[in-house]
Design brief:
120 residues; mainly alpha; 0% strand
Length: 120
């Protein structure tokens, strides 16, 4: 079994879940900029998290990257290429020295934003 398949099995992610994410995409798309802005404004409040950024131009590029990341999360496909891209992103976070706690908390914030949109 490939890693990406194992991860999906581990959390019970299946084709129906992928379809639900895809169905959410048109509802989230109008909010992608707002999600990215809120995501990075939260980071801005924590010096240890903010320390990995070099300048505002980098933050703006990362906001755009987060919008792309979120779009791909919802759109799929959730296959080996998707897994490989996510691994690469994770390795960058390690390379720049982002404390691990911020990855978990940031993903929680993102999940909250998406859940709010889904409920609405």
């Amino acid at each position: 079994m490939k890693h990406w398949e194992e991860m999906g099995d581990y959390v019970g992610f299946n084709h129906d879940d992928a379809q639900r994410l895809s169905n959410l995409l048109p509802h989230v798309t109008p909010h992608l900029q707002e999600i990215a802005d809120r995501f990075y404004s939260t980071i801005d409040k924590f010096p240890s998290a903010k320390a990995v950024f070099e300048n505002e131009a980098q933050v703006n590029r990362l906001k755009s990257s987060l919008q792309d990341w979120t779009h791909q999360l919802l759109k799929g496909p959730h296959d080996e290429a998707y897994w490989t891209r996510r691994q690469r992103i994770g390795r960058v976070h390690v390379r720049v020295g982002l404390p691990q706690r911020y990855m978990f908390t940031a993903m929680s914030l993102l999940r909250d934003h998406l859940s709010t949109i889904a409920r609405e």
